[in-house]
Design a protein that fits this description.
The chain is an alpha/beta fold. It is built from 13 helices and 22 strands. The termini are far apart.
């Protein structure tokens, strides 16, 4: 009865007092999910079959936080004259917009509202800023590659991603939700033609404007470039890490401003991704400082349990979704640390390296405030090959791009290991990384090897055909590489050592019959990083990744 009285009181306020101030938005924390027409005993009434199937597959219970927000509460807020912008069932919050300051000042007197928090002062601005993307570069050096990755060869071979692709795992049957700032001209640009032709873009939704228009010119191109690193498919120029996966394109970021409301948009997008059955969320967004400094986070908030968006990301992971997020680009700024939701303990946070597998100066670093390893892993985020806005293939910098590269490869690995749950998949990825036994706060566990993670290769021993056996060691190496070959017929072997960007460092030719040893020596002066060994025996060609250490 008390709650009803307070609601009536608030309605009277609306009728008698209407302060003419700038329109603001607020996050309302609700007390409970009472007066709900749904029950956890009947999840099919409020969850899609895909979402239910994911929970069943990973033995995840339907919980109270899966229930929608009470319609009675939503209707009550609308009746007050509030405009509902977004809501989160997991966090039991509603974002409302109003210019009635008197109502906002008294709204916590309503019985089902626990507290309020201002999330923005305005919602639109015509200029653009991109705090999460480093400036594009324009110089490309194309490498010849038998798999036709073109300019994208380095970013895939660095992860040994071609091993999964060669075995037919290109993301088929996996759905990736891309939560970003906008997907300018994805419906037109050439990198996405195969996605359009094969109906791999399952749908779009804009949580900023409340519609489905994410391709138009009012939106950022950031999400388009992100998508191209996974779903791009122009043989000989750009092939992404998961060209056969399905995609949902979800806009949560208003590129022209930075307010806490974008965390609410992200949470709503993540819940939508859950509802449509997404297996993976990849997000190249991060939050620490806002245009309204009163909303700023501090380093102590990066503890995995404090920020609104991190709580939402961990909720998504608790529903069986693999959540990846960028480490951020503030490694060379005073802040320097990863940003939310990259601090989440269930989030696979991705840092950036260059083509030599060296830490990219801008990549956000760890640890989290509570001392955990972050980022978890790293991929190529410096001079990363992406689709350009003018239709050309170009390069861009940022953990914004190392993250979707990793997400696409994770999709291929999950396709290979469908029996794993999301956290087991993270463990597989981390264990395959090159510094798993000695992680740091710049690259975490290091650069994953997806061939190794899938058990499709062994670090040292390689068996290719009935007549050829090969062993390469040590890996990692310092001053030499030893190659043992066993061949059952007379052949000539050619061994070539390349940098990760395709520069030939050494070549040796030798006749081969029976068992032969070939040593590459005097390598101690090579820079640390990833190198490729190419071995040609007759009409067979083998290419393997090997890591140089100091």
């Amino acid at each position: 009865m008390k709650r009803l009285q307070l609601l009536i009181f608030a309605i009277v306020i609306v009728n008698i007092s209407f302060a003419q101030v700038a329109s603001n938005s607020y996050r309302l924390y609700l007390t409970d999910k009472n007066n709900n027409t749904y029950s956890v005993d009947n999840p099919e009434d409020f969850l899609s079959q895909q979402a239910i199937n994911r929970r069943l597959k990973q033995d995840i219970d339907i919980k109270l936080n899966d229930l929608p927000i009470s319609k009675f509460y939503l209707d009550s807020l609308k009746n007050l004259g509030l405009v509902i912008l977004n809501k989160s069932k997991w966090l039991n919050t509603v974002v409302v917009q109003t210019n009635n300051q008197d109502l906002i000042d008294t709204i916590t007197k309503i019985g089902f509202i626990k507290s309020k928090q201002k999330t923005s002062s305005f919602l639109k601005q015509n200029s653009y800023k991109t705090s999460f993307e480093k400036k594009d570069l324009t110089i490309l050096s194309k490498n010849d590659d038998p798999l036709d990755y073109g300019y994208a060869t380095s970013q895939i071979s660095m992860l040994n991603g071609h091993v999964l692709h060669q075995n037919g795992y290109k993301g088929q049957g996996i759905t990736i939700a891309v939560i970003d700032a906008g997907f300018l001209d994805v419906d037109l640009l050439p990198a996405f033609e195969s996605l359009r032709t094969n109906h791999q873009i399952l749908g779009t939704k804009d949580f900023v404007d409340g519609d489905e228009h994410v391709f138009d010119t009012s939106n950022s191109s950031h999400g388009m470039k992100v998508l191209s690193t996974m779903g791009g498919n122009i043989p000989g120029e750009l092939i992404g890490t998961a060209p056969k996966a399905n995609y949902w394109l979800l806009r949560s970021e208003e590129a022209s401003t930075e307010y806490s409301i974008e965390e609410d948009n992200w949470a709503a997008a993540a819940e939508f991704a859950d509802s449509v059955g997404a297996d993976i969320i990849t997000s190249s967004l991060g939050y620490s400082e806002f245009d309204d400094s009163s909303q700023d986070y501090t380093y102590s908030d990066m503890d995995g349990n404090t920020t609104f968006i991190t709580k939402a990301a961990d909720f998504a992971a608790s529903k069986g979704i693999l959540v990846l997020n960028s480490a951020g680009n503030q490694g060379d700024d005073p802040w320097k640390y990863i940003s939310a939701p990259g601090d989440g303990d269930s989030v696979l946070t991705v840092g950036a390296v260059d083509a030599f597998a060296t830490y990219a100066y801008f990549s956000g670093v760890g640890p989290t405030f509570d001392g955990r390893i972050k980022p978890n892993v790293a991929a190529m985020g410096y001079q990363t090959t992406v689709q350009g806005v003018d239709g050309s293939i170009t390069v861009a910098n940022g953990t914004s791009f190392s993250t979707p590269i990793m997400a696409g490869m994770a999709a291929c690995l999950w396709q290979y290991f469908p029996e794993l749950n999301n956290m087991e998949l993270i463990q597989k990825i981390e264990e395959s990384a090159h510094q798993y036994s000695n992680p740091d706060y710049k690259l975490g566990y290091g650069i994953p090897d997806f061939g190794k993670a899938a058990n499709l290769i062994n670090t040292d021993i390689h068996s290719f055909t009935e007549k050829t056996f090969l062993k390469i060691y040590p890996n990692p190496f310092y001053s030499y590489i030893n190659i043992e070959l066993l061949q059952k017929s007379n052949e000539t072997v050619t061994v070539e050592l390349y940098s990760i960007i395709g520069k030939k460092i050494m070549e040796i030719q030798k006749p081969l019959m029976g068992q032969t040893n070939i040593e590459l020596y005097n390598l101690e002066d090579l820079s640390t990083g990833i190198y490729l060994i190419k071995i040609e025996i007759g009409n067979e060609t083998f290419q393997e990744r090997i890591i140089k250490i100091n």
